[in-house]
Task: structure prediction
Amino acid sequence: MGTARAVLTGLLALLLTLLLAGCGALGGSSAPSVAKLRVSMMSTIDTAPFWLAKDGGYFEREGLDVSTTDAATGQASLTKLLSGEADIAYSSYTPFFVARAKGTADIRLVADASSAGPGSTGVVALPASGIRSPADLAGKRIGISAPNTIADTLTKSVLADNHVDASGIKWIPLPLPNTASALKNGDIDAGFLTEPFITDARRTAGATLVADTGTGSTVDFPTAGYGALGAFTSAAPATVAAFQRAMAAATRDAVADRKKIEPLMVKYAKVDPATAATTGLLTLKSTVDVRQLQRVPDLLLKTGVLTTPVDVAAMVVR
Result:
């Protein structure tokens, strides 16, 4: 009996040891897994919710270790995505849809960023130019960030709304921050801008908004978002879902309290504190509205940027 009791006691002790070891292995004191995510970003104010998510710990709480790489334009951001330098890229929507339509890449849309609210995008000119309305833009030199982008697409749309022939316009590519000085130097007659550059051009050059591209047929028009390659979204669905949750929470908090993102506009969009406090904002969003976003490739098709239709529903990652 004594021997049997000793054996039983030994077995119970061994079982208890194994159970305790198992609990530790299942997570007791072990660190949670962290997914690394590389995101290509641009210096625009509608990326403020992203920086709130990064600096404010939203990504970290979702188990994401997010690093960023800078891109000067939407096309450059897309290039970083295609080269494998980034897992997710922020861009205006045009490069995403052009790549999809041409079969260059299997682009998937993982989050929205912004839409054009009244006064947040448009064409500006100096009072001395004599340009007062969209009708006065016919045959003029208009500065845009690049051809076949949201800049000339929105401008063409508002011109069409006002029955203005855009065929004689000379489109001048130049960086948005250089538009105010180009107006003052006489290098262009007018220029397409988004906020905060509209506010800056008003303050530094006395420019006025002569064509509001956030009204008419392009009111609340989607302007930018976050895309990834289909191979990545298929291979890392949990990582994509975590990114979406963090962006949704940060965007909600940014919209509820603008003060949360004003310092981030100064830090990352390189605007001064006065501009950050007074500039108009694009409509900040996170969840992709398929019906709204379908307007973008449809307009690109209408204006000749695309030659084949694009189905947005097939691109969105839920």
